[in-house]
Amino acid sequence: MTTEHRGDMEDSTGSHRVVVFGASGYVGGRLVTKLLEAGHQVVATSRDPEKLESLPWADQVEIRGVDLLDESTIPAAIAGCDTAYYLVHSMGGGEGYAGRDRASALNLVAASHDSDLEQIIYLSGLGDEDSELSEHLSSRQEVGQILAAGTVPVTELRAAVVIGSGSLSFEMLRYLTEVLPIMITPRWVRTRCQPIAIADVLHYLVAVLRNPDAYDRVLEIGGPDVLTYEEMIRKYAEVAGLAPRTIIPVPVLSPGLSGRWIGLVTPLSPVTSEELVQGLKNEVVVKDRPISAIIDHHPLTFDEAVGRALNGVRSSQVPTRWSPTDWAPAQALPSDPDYATGTVLGDVRRVETCAAAEDLFWAFARVGGATGYYSAGWAWRIRGLLDQVLGGAGLRRGRRHPEEVRRGEALDFWRVVDVRPNKGLALKAEMKVPGEAWLEWEIEESGGHFTLMQRATFVPRGLFGRLYWYSLVPFHGVIFPQMARGIVSAAEERWDARDAERVSAEADGPQASPQVP
């Protein structure tokens, strides 16, 4: 490994030009904000650059498209940058994720050899290298070893459970604790871990930027509390004002069974849950490589971290949220040519309205989560529960924000595949169905008047797919018209309220002064 200086890109203000791989992710999306606040120039990357365009900081960064599995796209992404943050991993993207992570890291190493990069900062997972780590933790640490074998100095930060509004670990902890007053749990609930607040993770990520003492080092980070998962559940309940939880550990629950159970009561899929459970069997605490020797910082306690996270959830201030990685940038729409020659089934509804386009968009952009689907809430809840039983996402993923919606994010058992402000919204189903399904809304204009067009589309897979659709047609005949009318009704109520506010403001406005002759 060489750590020779390869050109000073720092300007007189101490600003650096950094590239963030994984800028659309939970940590990356928040890190970009912190880097901008520190005065750095940021290049944000994603396989699907359009996903980044709706983020609050989009107009303050340079957005570049990159696919880490395609080495040819990486040089353009890192061009002109002196530091790279590597915040990507594929857990939740299906089998073979360790191989994809390995290939991505190797591609970055190869592309960075002749680049201007002077540091790579990688966020990894805690765990004793000498113990039998889970596949997830082992893969995270393997990526760090691959990056460190390159020619660019690497700073690897290792963290355990990250506590923050919308984080994967926090979502799992929150739902388990709030949904289940009595829990029968595996023995892993008594394994020690050292949680850390997302605010402290971000602080460390920024603080090690171009810090020579952090080059070519693995630095373990954690909060001040070392707790078992059982203690975390009890403490969460206390901070959240819940009744004390009863926890009964038993030795017979396998990771697979635990994963399926967690998948029923949390927003996590059974596959992701099982991976997390496997990791929770390993003790993950800071040991012999504390970062305090390099950075003077006092992390939040577990109670403080939970309190902050709960405040974010309750006030709907969740800037980023963990989401499964099975999102592909080229998610299809039913209007794509691929489906032109196949069987496409659907339900289309149109409702004219006096509301404005922005009110219609506001109304249908709120679907899911606490708002629901404007019709037959009981039916949607049953469908969500059935989906969870079958191993799907169900409705527990909810929404990141009650009104905002971004392309690529999860929304209940849907994925947002298209957002056009004041024009349209398209969702693709991630529920367990024998085919592919979409739910779309378009705002049509004619002569200054607007019509809501709502379309449900289904491309069946085989005979069972067709039987599935036709068996639901009677329910669709009730649910879909109610949904369209409900959306229009909500839009018109908002339009009327805004119109009343305008009239009131005009009535209360300053009166014209009489002219003096």
Structural overview:
The protein is built from 13 helices and 19 strands. The protein is globular and about 65 Å long. The protein has 3 domains: 1-157, 3-Layer(aba) Sandwich (Rossmann fold); 160-198 and 216-317, NAD(P)-binding Rossmann-like Domain (Rossmann fold, 3-Layer(aba) Sandwich), CATH 3.40.50.720; 337-500, 2-Layer Sandwich (Alpha-D-Glucose-1,6-Bisphosphate, Chain A, domain 4), CATH 3.30.530. Helix 4 links the parallel strand 5 and strand 6 (154-159). Helix content is 35%, strand content 19%. The protein has helices spanning 26-37, 74-78, 97-112, 135-148, 168-179, 198-207, 229-239, 255-265, 270-280, 302-314, 357-364, 377-389, 462-507, and strands at residues 17-21, 41-46, 62-65, 83-86, 119-125, 154-159, 162-163, 182-185, 192-193, 196-197, 217-220, 227-228, 246-249, 345-353, 410-411, 414-420, 424-429, 435-446, 449-460. The protein has a 7-stranded parallel β-sheet, sandwiched between helices. It is α/β, with parallel strands linked by helices.
Task: Give the topology, please.
Elements: E1 17-21, H1 26-37, E2 41-46, E3 62-65, H2 74-78, E4 83-86, H3 97-112, E5 119-125, H4 135-148, E6 154-159, E7 162-163, H5 168-179, E8 182-185, E9 192-193, E10 196-197, H6 198-207, E11 217-220, E12 227-228, H7 229-239, E13 246-249, H8 255-265, H9 270-280, H10 302-314, E14 345-353, H11 357-364, H12 377-389, E15 410-411, E16 414-420, E17 424-429, E18 435-446, E19 449-460, H13 462-507
Parallel strand pairs: 1-2, 1-4, 2-3, 4-5, 5-6, 6-11, 7-10, 8-13
Antiparallel strand pairs: 9-12, 14-19, 15-16, 16-17, 17-18, 18-19
